[in-house]
Amino acid sequence: MEQPQKHNKFNTIQGVFIPTLLTILGIILFLRLPWVVGNAGVGGAVLIILISVSITLLTSLSLSSIISNIRIGFGGAFSIISRSLGLEIGGSIGIPLYLSQAIAVAMYIFGFREGWTWIFPDHPPLLVDIAVFAVVFAIAFFSTKLAFKIQYVILAIIVLAISSIVIGFFLADDYQQPKIIGDFVQAREGELIGANFWMVFAVFFPAVTGIMAGLNMSGDLKNPRKSIPKGTLWAVGLTTIVYIVLGIMAAFLGNAEELVENYTFFIDHAWIPLIVLIGLAGATFSSALTSFIGAPRVLEAIAQKNILPFSERLKKRNKRGEPAAAIFLTGVIVLAALLTRELNLIAPLITLFFLITYMMINLVVLIEQSLSLPSFRPTFSIPIIIPLLGSVSCLFVMFVVNAVFSLLSIITVFFIYAYLMRKHLNYSGGYARSGLFSALAKWATERSVSFSQQNEPRSWQPDLLVPVRQPRELRSSFRLLYSIFHPKGSLKVLGIGTGGALEILKKEIPPIVQKMKRSGDSITYSFIESDTFEKSIRISIQALDSAYFKPNSVFLRIDSRIRDLKPYEELIKHQVHEKRGVLLYIPFAQVGLGLEKTINLWLRDIPEDWETKRELGNNDLALLMGLLLEENWKSGLNVIAELREGQTTGQGQTFLNHLKESARLPKKTGLYLVRENTPDVWERVPHADLSITAFSTDTPLSRLSAIVRKHRSSFLFTADSGRENAQF
Question: Is the same domain home to 378 and 461?
Answer without folding.
Answer: no
